[in-house]
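== Sequence entry ==
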Amino acid sequence: MAIKEEKYQQLFKESLGLFAVFGYKKTTIEDVAAKLGMTKGNLYFYVKNKRDLYQKTIHWALIKWQAHVIKAVDKETCPRKKFMAMARAAMSYIDTNKSLRKILIHDPEIFTLDREKDRFPEANQAAREVIRSIIDQGIAEKIFSITDVCATTEYLFSVYMMFLIKTYVFLDPTAFQQMFDAALQLNLRGLMHNNSPSTP
């Protein structure tokens, strides 16, 4: 890894921790620079200002989250198992990442279903692409019966965001596990038995 890339990784890791503890308003560029053993001036070689640092830090954290999910998905070969691995890895990661979880609680607008208000479109599009790749494989292997891939991808991404918002923004973890397991089964099996008629 190049020295500059290592510095970015260290910068975002430390700033994530500071933003989690002190929040956006109370965290200063000086705090971050001191944590890294840098001057404030040196820090400006990497970011334009505090807002830029915050945005880049959250983007970095979201990409790390996705890398964790992709690693779990890549261990499986069956689309159904990939779907289960994706869902479980996505939720377990945020459970164990206390810094990111604190930031999400204090900045719930990180999660949005409104594309025009999405502050992290690249990261969220990458998440959609993980979902879509599993759907595409499932269709190719005749495991999933889906006619509109784009709409299904958007639906599944929306359900995922709903779980994140309900659990970490509205802080309702009690009902989460039951709903999560039910949603997984519903999304994978549907409402009807295999021998049910396709139309009412």
Summary: The domain at 3-189 is CATH 1.10.357.10 (Tetracycline Repressor; domain 2). The chain is about 75% helix and 0% strand.
